[in-house]
Amino acid sequence: MLKGGCFCGKVRYETDGKPFNASLCHCIDCRRVASSPLVAWFSVKREALHYVDAQPKEFASSDKVLRTFCPDCGSPLTYWNADAADDIDVATCSLDDPAAVPPADHVWASRKLQWLHTDDGLPHYPEERPD
Ligand SMILES: [Zn+2]
Ligand SMILES: [Zn+2]
Hints:
This protein is mostly beta strands and 131 residues long.
């Protein structure tokens, strides 16, 4: 069971889903939404993610993408894309133990900020992860 939530503790979630596609995303939307040079995500099946009490606030960051965040403290929490509707991405650093789900690659590395150095030996995909 993975548990996590936002900074202030209002929104808490649990998932018994097996994490997959753990990744570091350099895309411009993630950067802007999190005000961070990159965002670590992992996926679980959408039905496997459960909010304990309060629901996060939702907004569309593009035509097919819904993101959520805590309405009180603003922590980004999830990313959902209509093209992979059964899956949801969870911000790895919202986990109580982010070390439990280490990233396996970088996506949208073509957008990586030049001052950010990522010589971690992981694959760097220029855009989305190839199938
Ligand atoms: Zn919060
Ligand atoms: Zn992204």
